[in-house]
Specification:
Chain B: It comes from Antarcticimicrobium luteum. Chain B: One of its GO terms (molecular function) is ATP hydrolysis activity. The complex is a heterodimer. By secondary structure, chain A is an alpha+beta fold. Helix content of chain A is about 65%, strand content about 10%. Chain B has one domain: P-loop containing nucleotide triphosphate hydrolases (Rossmann fold), CATH 3.40.50.300. In chain B, about 35% of the residues lie in helices and about 25% in strands. In chain B, about 45% of the residues are buried. The chains are: A alpha+beta, B alpha/beta.
Amino acid sequence: MLRNVLIGDAQADRVVPPSGFTAQLTLFASGAMAFLAVFALALSLASGRLAERWASELARSATLRITAPEDQVAAQTDAALRVLRQTPGVARARALSQEEQAALLAPWFGPGLDLAALPVPQLIEVMEDELGYDAAGLRLRLAAEVPGAVLDDHTRWRKPLVEAANSLRRLGWISVLLIGGAMAAMITLAANAALAANAQVIEVLRLVGARDSYIAGAFVRRFTLRALIGAGIGVALGLGGVLLLPEASDEGGFLTGLGFRGLGWLWPLLIPVLGALVAFAATWFAARRRLKELS
Amino acid sequence: MIELDDVGYSYGGGELLSNLSVRLAPGSFHFLTGPSGAGKTTLLKLCYGALTPTSGTVRAFDADMRGLDRDQMALLRRRIGVVHQDCRFLDHLPLADNIALPLIVSGRDMAQESDNLKELMSWVGLTARADARPPELSGGERQRAALARAVILSPDVVLADEPTGNVDWDMSMRLLTLLVELNKMGKTVLIASHDLALIRAAKSQVQARVLRISNRRLQLAGADL
């Protein structure tokens, strides 16, 4: 059957009259759904990339905060760095410079901030190695040797962020599935309308010896090709829209960079094929059911 | 070839036909007559499987029609050419394609069948109307086209339901001649008609049995025709 659709039969296609509004409905529905599917796919893939980036970048890092009287900050920072260098699983540790700390606060206080005028704690960036360190043991040792140190291993806020990104990814895929289902429903309705409108044609075809598979095939081929063309147009427009989205940037946060990356651009090309398969299945089942009813 | 054995057909709570038995032997020529509403069209429909009898058995080519699935029924209908009273064309197709429809749906190579189609269209005198759409045709042209479509697959049986119902006498005679020619080629022919003049004219050309439906039953008509 699928082979017949792909090869086509010009004579068989002609025996089914062109059906105006169902053709346009199928073309529009598949085009609109493919357009939406491109964005759902882009959202899903971008969320996936975000989740992976957050998970991998943040999982290996931690921050040590030194909050101490001004005259003890330097000593406690040195002590903390010494403890960290001796801790198995810590690949490197370094105290952030005044400029780096000022840059971190710049989004809230603006540029040119004089940290000396503020009671800002000293931050130490900790990078762990492949094996990782024992956070509980490190905390105990720091409590004993560096009383002003607080270890933040990012777990508390990293986890919900990664979960949120993963949820977005799931929602993207669910949207793609729902779009496919909605497309199948609309094409089924259009196919049913076309079959009902052509009941007399079907009767004549049967009277002259047409098999049901032949009649169904003529309708299936027509709707599958329309869905393929509609989805192709929808994907082209969708990709155009994605190309117009702003590039990923630090300023834009996660709202930018929603497009495709590298081989990800190939994913949308599957949408017309999947759309055609959905149309094929929807029309095939609708036609078989309708032909059975007309027996 | 086609055999009805004690067939009855009820519709809407009323019995339209009852205890009908008839055998259409290969190469035979039958007329089916009777008043309007007697059940001639119903009997024809029973013969090509468009209706299922409520009692009795219809056998075509040694197969009980009741036991055929839809694919088998499709194949059976390629062996039975039917001329419908209302012709039943596909209005979106030109006449040539309508006549070729049985060839198209049976998957024949149309390039190879092109000569046959032209010959058949010439036989029914419609060569010049090949590109016309069915609504543009006259009653006689429609009937001749319907006959051409019915025979294009060279079926074993031709069933014609009032084939001369909408045409003048000259055209009736022309159509009758075509059906008689088919019979002479060995085809089994059954014509449902209430046109007694046509039946009398036919009897002068071919040995025809005349069956009459009366009071839901089938009788062999006598010499009063």
